Every structure is written in C-alpha cells, then in structure tokens.
C-alpha cells in the first residue's frame, strides 16, 4: 500500500502524522509524508519518505509575533498568496501514485488531491472538529454556551474555513482540473471517513456519534529511551528531586518577560526545582538560579516521565504526553482548543482547575502543590492509556479503506 499523508500545522500536528507514517512503514507499507519544509529535520532518520510543502506562513507568524494589531492586519494580506503556494505544492503531490490519502484539515487541499487521484481519503483529526454532538460544545468555540446550543457551536469550524473557500475553489479548478462538484471541507469530513486520533480515556465518543467516529487512541512516536540528553540536562535531573516542567509549546504572549517572572517566582514559592522549555517564545528567561534549567525543547516522551508536575498550555499533544507519562498537570490555556482540554484534564482528576487569565506566582505555586497530590490518579490513568495503540488501529482502518476501493 502506498499511503500519502498530508499534515500542516505545528510540530505537534506533524509529529503525530510522523508517528502514523512510522506505523505504516513498520506494517510493510510505503508511506509518503508531506509537511511544511521546516519539519524535514524532524522526519529525517525515521526512514519515511518526505515531501516538503511551502512553509512561508510560519515565517510570517514569527515576523509579526509581539508586533501588535497593525502588523497582524498587514500580514493577513499576505496569507492568500501564501496559501495558494501551499496548495500548489499539494497539487504537485497528485503526480505521485497513492492508494489512499490521510490528511490534516489544516492542509485545506488533502481531500481534493484524493478526488483528483480517485482514491479514498480519511481526515486525521487530532481534536474533535467537524462531527457535531449535543454532549459538549466545539472545542474551538470561544465561549462555553448553554447545553442546548452545544450542537450549534460546531458550525464555528466551517466558519473558520469559509474565508479561504474562494481560493480553494479556484485552485481546485486551475491546478487540479476539478471544475464541478466542490464540497467544503467541513461537509467532506462530516460525511466521509475520519480517524479521531485521541484516547477515549481523555474524551470518549458521545452517544450521538457513529461507531466509525469513535476515538482510536493517540498517534504516539516510539519511546525516546534511546535519546541522549544534553549533559547539562542529565546532570540537573540527577542532582535533586524530580523538577517541575514548564513549557508552553508554540503558544505566544504579548509579555513573555512578565509571564516568565511569574513562573520563576511561582516555582520558588512552591519550593520546587524546574526545567523551563522556551519553545516558540512564550517564556523568555533572563538570569535564573541553580534550581532552574532553561532548555529550548526536549522529547516529551523522554523528559516528562522524569518530572513531578507538567505545567503547559493545554495543547492535546503535550496533554497526551503527560497522560502517558503518568505525571499530574497544571494547565494555563492560551487559545483555541486549549481551554477545552484543560477542562477535560481537570474533570479526569489529573489536573487542578485551569489557570485562566493573568498568571500570578501565588496561583501557580498553589496549582503545582495541588497537582502533586494528584500523582496517584495520573499514574492509574497512564496504565489505561498505555493499553491503547492508536497507530495500529489507524493502520488497520487505512488498510481496510484501501482494500475496499480495490
């Protein structure tokens, strides 16, 4: 089988598709992973064929970070031509042979490449996005609506895609020669094949979802046990009690120095050592004490089992890594689906109430101590999550989809 995987988004998005590609490779298939060019080093060394896609929008995000509203508005004018170039790179994938396509909805072009090739397509969703339910609101809905409006809140996903539909429709006709029968992404996912790649322990399927939409488990990279940490990190971990991990991934803030100061003081008030991962810039430490180690990043699969508490932004990839590690969590959500996952972790008893709004040292210190008391619940939940194999389940579904076409 020759599966084509298309992922666009953050490192967390691409890494989970890489985990799926590795699973397909191990099962004897020949996957191709198409993702933004800057993630080529992430894929290198895993034996997976890589097809680079335009990554200008990442550079645009970096250029306007912290520059204010006017810079963001000016940058927005550049998005459409950048999107067209990203879509054109995806159109070039149609020259390859493929039996089935698995796409991240952020790619915007995945299902139409499958349409051009005449092969099945499955949406790989790392969060619930297009499958309405009355059980809970859309994770990306900006406020929590009254329960009777839960189902209506799911229209927000289609609304986010709407501004780009004219670009996609034009590209679909000009680059792929598909002039009739355009169906928006939201409708394609809702009525087609979908792989919900999160643990049912984190979020089980509601009763009003079809059986095909049940979550199959996280797409997890193999254990990082053979990863060699920098000497400074290894030495820091050996020199005392397990530290608190603090990292906000690709999230950003208008005042990283203020946030960092609150984090450092909060860790001190809690009487804990800490490893701070600066990520994309939400944390910007200056001088730190001997009880704090600053790193850019480290594999969560290796680092989180070695810490006492994980403080993070609520991205589902980081939440999943902490769940697998059996470590309690403190979540300070920023945007998007992060408040949704923060609430879920609190509901499951592996995190205290989310730290919404301005983070203060006192609030963080109290949350860290409250989280530490939840360690037994975190370890128990980790045992259940470890029994799942989302990659294997996805490989089986993809193979069935390709065989059905044949």
Task: Explain what this protein looks like in three dimensions.
The protein has 406 residues and is an alpha/beta fold. It has two domains: 3-218 and 388-405, 3-Layer(aba) Sandwich (Rossmann fold); 231-386, Rossmann fold (3-Layer(aba) Sandwich), CATH 3.40.50.2000. The chain has helices at 11-26, 40-43, 56-64, 69-76, 79-92, 110-117, 150-153, 155-161, 165-176, 185-191, 231-238, 256-269, 300-303, 316-325, 338-347, 361-372, 375-386, 390-405; strands at residues 3-6, 32-36, 49-53, 100-103, 121-125, 193-196, 244-247, 274-277, 292-295, 309-312, 329-331. The strands form two sheets. Strands 3-2-1-4-5-6 form a six-stranded parallel sheet, with helices on both faces. Strands 9-8-7-10-11 form a five-stranded parallel sheet, with helices on both faces. Helix 12 (256-269) links the parallel strand 7 and strand 8 (274-277). Helix 5 (79-92) packs parallel to helix 9 (165-176). The longest helix is centred in the N-terminal third of the chain and has 16 residues, at 11-26. The relative contact order is 0.12.
Write a brief structural summary.
The protein is α/β, with parallel strands linked by helices. It has helices at 11-26, 40-43, 56-64, 69-76, 79-92, 110-117, 150-153, 155-161, 165-176, 185-191, 231-238, 256-269, 300-303, 316-325, 338-347, 361-372, 375-386, 390-405, and strands at 3-6, 32-36, 49-53, 100-103, 121-125, 193-196, 244-247, 274-277, 292-295, 309-312, 329-331. It folds into 2 domains: 3-218 and 388-405, Glycogen Phosphorylase B (Rossmann fold), CATH 3.40.50; 231-386, 3-Layer(aba) Sandwich (Rossmann fold), CATH 3.40.50.2000.
């Amino acid at each position: 089988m020759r599966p084509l995987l298309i992922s666009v988004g953050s490192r967390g998005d691409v890494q989970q598709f890489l985990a799926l590609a590795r699973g397909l490779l191990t099962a004897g298939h020949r996957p191709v992973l198409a993702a933004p060019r800057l993630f080529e080093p992430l894929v290198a060394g895993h034996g997976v064929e890589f097809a680079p896609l335009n990554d200008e929008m990442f550079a645009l995000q970096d250029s306007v970070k912290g520059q204010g509203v006017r810079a963001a508005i000016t940058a927005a004018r550049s998005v459409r031509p950048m999107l067209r170039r990203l879509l054109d790179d995806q159109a070039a994938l149609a020259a390859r042979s493929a039996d089935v396509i698995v796409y991240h909805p952020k790619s915007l072009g995945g299902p139409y490449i499958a349409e051009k090739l005449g092969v099945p397509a499955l949406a790989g969703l790392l969060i619930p996005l297009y499958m309405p339910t009355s059980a809970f609101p859309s994770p990306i809905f900006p406020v929590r609506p009254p329960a009777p409006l839960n189902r209506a809140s799911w229209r927000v996903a289609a609304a986010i895609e709407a501004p780009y539909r004219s670009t996609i429709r034009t590209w679909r006709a000009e680059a792929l020669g598909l002039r009739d029968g355009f169906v928006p992404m939201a409708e394609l996912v809702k009525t087609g094949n979908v792989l919900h790649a999160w643990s049912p322990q984190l979020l089980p399927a509601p009763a009003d979802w079809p059986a095909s939409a049940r979550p199959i488990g996280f797409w997890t990279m193999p254990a990082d046990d053979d990863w060699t940490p920098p000497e400074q990190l290894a030495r820091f971990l050996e020199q005392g009690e397990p530290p608190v991990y603090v990292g906000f991934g690709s999230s950003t803030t208008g005042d990283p120095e203020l946030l960092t100061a609150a984090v450092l003081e909060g860790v001190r008030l809690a009487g804990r050592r800490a490893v701070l991962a600066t990520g994309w810039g939400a944390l910007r430490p200056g001088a730190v004490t001997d009880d704090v180690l600053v790193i850019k990043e480290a594999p969560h699969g290796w680092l989180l089992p070695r810490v006492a508490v994980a403080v993070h932004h609520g991205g589902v990839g980081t939440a999943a890594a902490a769940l697998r590690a059996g470590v309690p969590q403190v979540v300070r959500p920023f945007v998007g689906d992060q408040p949704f996952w923060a609430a879920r972790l609190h509901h499951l008893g592996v995190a205290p109430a989310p730290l919404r709004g301005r983070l203060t040292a006192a609030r963080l210190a109290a949350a860290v101590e409250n989280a530490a008391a939840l360690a037994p619940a975190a370890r128990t939940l980790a045992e259940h999550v470890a029994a799942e194999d989302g990659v294997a389940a996805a490989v089986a579904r993809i193979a069935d989809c390709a065989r059905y076409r044949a």
